[in-house]
Amino acid sequence: MPKNIFTRGRSISLNRKHRIVAAGVGTLGAAAVALTAVPASGQTTTSEAAPTAKVAYSTKQIQDVHAGVTGQLAGASQKVAAIEAKQEAAAKKETAAKKAAAEKAAAKREAKQSASRSAERTEVKKSYPNNLDGWIREARAIMKKHGIPGSYEGIYRNIMRESSGNPKAINDWDINAINGIPSKGLLQVIPPTFEAYHVPGTPKNIWDPVANIVAACNYAADKYGTMDNVDSAY
Questions:
Q1: C or N: which end of the chain has fewer Cβ atoms within 10 Å?
Q2: CA 149, CA 128: separation in Å to the nearest integer?
Q3: For residues 191 and 209, is the Cβ–Cβ distance under 8 A?
Q4: Cβ(199)–Cβ(220) under 8 Å?
Q5: How far apart are CA 18 and CA 24, in angstroms?
Q6: Which domains, from first to last, does the chain contain?
Q7: Terminal Cα-to-Cα distance of the chain (whole angstroms)
Q8: Which residues lie below 8 Å from residue 88, measured CB to CB, with a gap of 6+?
Q9: Mean pLDDT of all residues belonging to the chain
């Protein structure tokens, strides 16, 4: 039998079909009350919180990443160490080469100086006979060292004319003797000339035969070019 409902003062008779629809609407309304508002994301939530899900964490990937970074750093360190070692080896090689070159140059200089000293010692130690021939030869060796010209023949010739080979000869009658500065020695040199043309390395003694020859030849080279050009008193 149909029921009556009122709508704005009017009664409406509901048949069986209408009652089923109304019941469905009521059920939906009740269900709607139990639901919360739908959020903007479109997901629905209920008034009762959902249980918290358990999340499983793993450190394997982190460990792998850490190991990878450590390996890269170790590789980079090895490369840097290799480069530094190579540079250090090159620097040591260059230093060793420079040291060897310096030592070789020093040894060469020392050998040259040693040879020079040996030659000088040989020259100094070289013995000349204590006679006219020995005096002339020793004088010429000293003259050669100092760049003073004069042949054996030219020196011998002038000695024989001036003193006849007597190292103690003295002129006591010419103008020099009159002036108080007589000529002395093998090549009859006056004291002022001997002092002015004395050559270092020989005795400062006008009577010394070698010193007398060298000083006289030094004077002749200055005034005449060489003792070889002197053919008379000079």
A1: N
A2: 20
A3: no
A4: no
A5: 10
A6: 132-229 (1.10.530.10)
A7: 183
A8: none
A9: 78
Contact predicate 199/214, CB 8 Å: yes
Sign of the CA dihedral 186, 189, 190, 195? negative
pLDDT band at 20 (very low <50, low <70, confident <90, very high): very low
Residue 183 token pair: 């000529």
Pairing between β-strand 3-7 and β-strand 10-14 as defined by DSSP bridges: antiparallel
Residue 67: C-alpha distances to residues 61, 62, 71, 80 (Å): 10, 8, 6, 20
Which stretches does DSSP call E strand in the chain?
3-7, 10-14
Instruction: Report which residue type is found at 212.
Output: N
176: amino acid identity, one letter: N
pLDDT at residue 224, rounded to an integer = 97
Q: Maximum Cα–Cα distance for the chain, whole Å?
A: 196
What Å distances lie between residue 157 and 56, 132, 193, 232, CA to CA? 126, 12, 20, 10
Residue of 183, 141, 191, 154 lying closest to 166 (CA atoms): 183
**Residue of 167, 168, 166, 190 whose CA lies nearest to 177:** 190
* Euclidean distance between CA atoms 215 and 116, whole angstroms: 25
Give yes or no for a contact between 220 and 227, defined as CB atoms under 8 angstroms apart.
yes
The amino acid present at 156, given as its one-letter code, is: Y
Query: Distance between CA atoms of 76 and 145, rounded to whole angstroms?
Result: 70
Q: Which amino acid is at 96?
A: A
Sole residue written with tokens 């005034």 = 223
Q: What is the pLDDT of residue 54?
A: 55
